[in-house]
Amino acid sequence: MAFDRSLFFKELGRKAFHAAGIVIPAAYFFFLSREWMLAALAICILGAGVLEYMRLNGRSLFGSQFMRPSEDKRLGGYFYAAVSLFLAVLLFEKTIAVVAMLCLVIGDALTGLAGVVLSMYMGRMTADVRQEDTARRGIISRVVGDTAYALSHPKSPVLMLVMFSVCSAIGMLFYPALPLAVIAAGALGAVIADCFPWRFLGFVIDDNLSIPLAVGILMSLTLLLYNIIL
Q1: At a CB cut-off of 8 Å and minimum separation 6, what does 206 contact?
Q2: What pTM did the predictor assign?
Q3: For residue 204, which phi and psi values (nearest 5 degrees)?
Q4: How far is CA 154 from CA 11, 103, 106, 159, 179, in A?
Q5: Percent of the chain surpassing pLDDT 70
Q6: DSSP assignment, residue 127?
Q7: Position 40 pLDDT exceeds 90
Q8: What does the alpha-carbon distance between residue 82 and residue 191 come to, in Å, rounded to a whole number?
Q9: In the Cβ-directed half-sphere of 36, how many Cα atoms lie within 13 Å?
Q10: pLDDT for 1 beyond 60
Q11: From CA 226, how far away is CA 162, in angstroms rounded?
Q12: Between 127 and 107, residue with greater pLDDT
């Protein structure tokens, strides 16, 4: 499949909209307190919830130019992003929360663009293969099946490398005093969340929700171990 300019620029528009969210971690990094950041994100969640309710009921204010076809009948990624940014600020210390948010806003955007280009040259329409599993099975069978599906449908190692490199650069640029092991753990969390199509009981886990949480959890655990050992 040759390079498709229209497809690329459509994805570029989506990712530019996505990357505009950089104002949120930037505001937290430079001047907003944790309390004000949580309040602002709570308002964002409420607003996104109202917009999604209207869209899913046929009264969209902005059309579907920034939505994936897979989001036609389910919540849009920006709603999950608002929730995950709120949880990152709520659950993690500021240093880790900022890195986790930037890994979503910047890392996911750049990896997404790289994925579009790579997929076109590989003859595929998308690098992501997230899809629900509606088969009726027991809980254990579903968990095993969901895990096996995710592990057997990874994105290209090239995209894993892009995500890991971008997220590592984010950590080193914004918080150079952080141990490299902590930064690497966060970047690994971003790769795990973004590059495997995780599901829970058959339902797709949106990477806009999972990336900041995976980054924050792995960074927090690694920093805890680092402080205990050293």
Answers
A1: 75, 77, 80, 130
A2: 0.86
A3: -65, 135
A4: 20, 19, 20, 10, 28
A5: 79
A6: S
A7: yes
A8: 20
A9: 9
A10: no
A11: 26
A12: 107
- Helix extents (H) in 153-206: 157-174, 180-195
Task: Establish how many alpha carbons lie within 13 A of residue 212's alpha carbon, considering only the half-sphere containing its beta carbon.
Answer: 29
Q: How many CB atoms lie within 10 A of CB 107?
A: 27
Q: Which residue has the tokens 């829970």?
A: 200
d(CA 134, CA 197): 15
Q: 116 is written with which tokens?
A: 């579009």
Beta bridge partners of 204: 199
Q: Is the pLDDT of residue 7 over 70?
A: no
The residue extents of the domains of the chain are: 5-229
- The Cα-based distances of 202 to 66, 117, 142, 225 in angstroms read 25, 29, 7, 33
What gap in Å lies between CA 141 and CA 138, rounded to an integer? 5
Q: What was the pLDDT predicted at 203?
A: 82
DSSP, collapsed to helix, strand or coil, labels residue 99 as: helix
Give the number of residues written for the chain.
230
For the chain, give percent helix, strand, coil, nearest 5: 75, 0, 25
Give pLDDT tens digits for 56-110.
Answer: 887 766 655 556 656 667 788 889 999 999 999 999 999 999 999 999 999 998 9
Residue 103's φ and ψ, nearest 5 degrees, are -60, -35
The burial class, CB within 10 Å (0-12 / 13-18 / 19+), for 200 is exposed
25's CB contacts (< 8 A; 6+ apart) are 85, 98, 101, 102, 105
**219 CB neighbour count, 10 Å cutoff:** 30
Classify 101 as helix, strand or coil: helix
